[in-house]
Amino acid sequence: MDRALAAREYANHLTDADLGLLAPGDPGGGDWLRGDPAALLRLLEDPGTFGTVLAGTVLAGGGLAGGGLAGGGLAGGGLGQGPGDGPRGWAVQASPFLIFALLVQRAATELASAAHVPERTGLRQRVPLFDAPALRDFLADAARRLFLAELLASFTRVASGRYRVRVAGRARTRRFSELDPVRLAGLLDAVSEAERPGVYRRLGDVSLFLTGVFPDYVTARALGPVDAGRLLRAAGLTGPQRERLAAGPAIELLEHLGARWYRTACELAPVRTARLAVADDVAGRFRQARRVLNHLADRYLLSAGQPWFTPPGS
After folding, report:
1. DSSP single-letter state for residue 272
2. Which whole-number Å values give the CA distances from 182 to 135, 148, 177, 231, 257, in the listed order?
3. Mean pLDDT by 10 residues, the chain (314 residues)
4. Do the beta carbons of residue 53 and residue 21 sit within 8 Å?
5. Element (H, E) at 161
6. What is the pTM of this model?
7. 64 by DSSP, 3-state: which?
8. Which residues does 29 contact at the CB level (< 8 Å), separation at least 6?
9. Segment (H or E) for 3
10. Distance between CA 13 and CA 294 in Å, rounded?
11. Three-state DSSP class for 120?
12. Which of 300, 291, 263, 14 is nearest to 146 (CA)?
């Protein structure tokens, strides 16, 4: 996806209220930005835009006031208070996509001068890793930044439900949730061939989301040996590679599987769209994508008292 197409995709996601926040004081409410995606993208990339739109919601600890995304949905049904209810009143107008797009861009600004970035070596344990240049390279591309903003926004509402599958000749009812990769992978046994690329794509998404936003949860509770084995079988892995991944850290397992699932979605799709091309690109940079999200989670998404997301099962 080239920069021009990425700019148009940004414009397609933003609401009229978002445009008004991006162009305060404009008599037309910023509507001209929709007709000039290149200018819109330059505005989103301007470090000053973060302060213009989100300064009223940034807490001293680096997190955001204005409500959270709890259990996969918007806490309290919206962001912030109602209009006129104080300094956070305007925040209710901002769409989750705009907020996440600005946070991803904020990460690019912060990492531009970072010498190192903390990396997890265990539950709530971090050591400095001097890979900031690789993260800066990941964020240098507008399409990859768009990918992360879309990913985060997509988990503000999590799909779940039941489906029917035949096992040993008998119909069974199973449950699935987009926040449970094991149950989501079970859908592969129930959907048509035409639907499989979409399931593989979402498996890649949930792997990136969990390892990026909730790495401590993944380390401690996300996968036991049985669940790890189910995912490895669903991915078609056998032999020494399967044994190595099953015995290793859960984050490494989901990194490998997430990248594999993105590539499988691209391989099985009847048409390789620009969006799938970006997913394929992210597959090759999965660890960098995960670590950018780790940075955002530490700085903004999981701030004490005002988390934007809560761990699965909370």
Report:
1. -
2. 29, 22, 9, 6, 12
3. 92 92 85 92 92 61 38 32 32 80 94 79 66 91 97 87 72 78 87 92 95 88 77 80 78 92 94 92 96 91 73 70
4. yes
5. strand 160-167
6. 0.83
7. strand
8. 16, 19, 20, 23
9. helix 3-13
10. 24
11. strand
12. 14
